[in-house]
Amino acid sequence: MKHILYLLLVLPALLFSQQKVSGSILELQNNKEVPLPFANVFWLNSQVGTVTDIDGNFSIEFSAQYSKLVVSYVGYTTDTITVTNPNSRTIRHLLMI
Known about the structure:
By secondary structure, this protein is α+β, with helices and mostly antiparallel strands. It has one domain (19-94): Sandwich (Immunoglobulin-like), CATH 2.60.40. Helix content is 15%, strand content 41%. It has 1 helix and 8 strands. A hairpin with a 6-residue loop joins β6 (68-72) and β7 (79-82). The longest helix has 15 residues, at 2-16.
């Protein structure tokens, strides 16, 4: 019984402790922001990453050991974004090479 009570108290804390960083990767075309689909987004010096959806949106799990997101896309400069607040939405423009 003690183990079940312990799981009921600890499990919700574990589930809600995982935070996600979400945002949009956009391109500036003719002074208009256009979504950049299928851009690579990953934590610097890690194997954890994701790809933006058709609307340029992404979501990736936040980890305290990583603080810089790398955004790359073929034909564009690679950009590094420092994440200071995992709850904030990150919107970034990539420039053509």
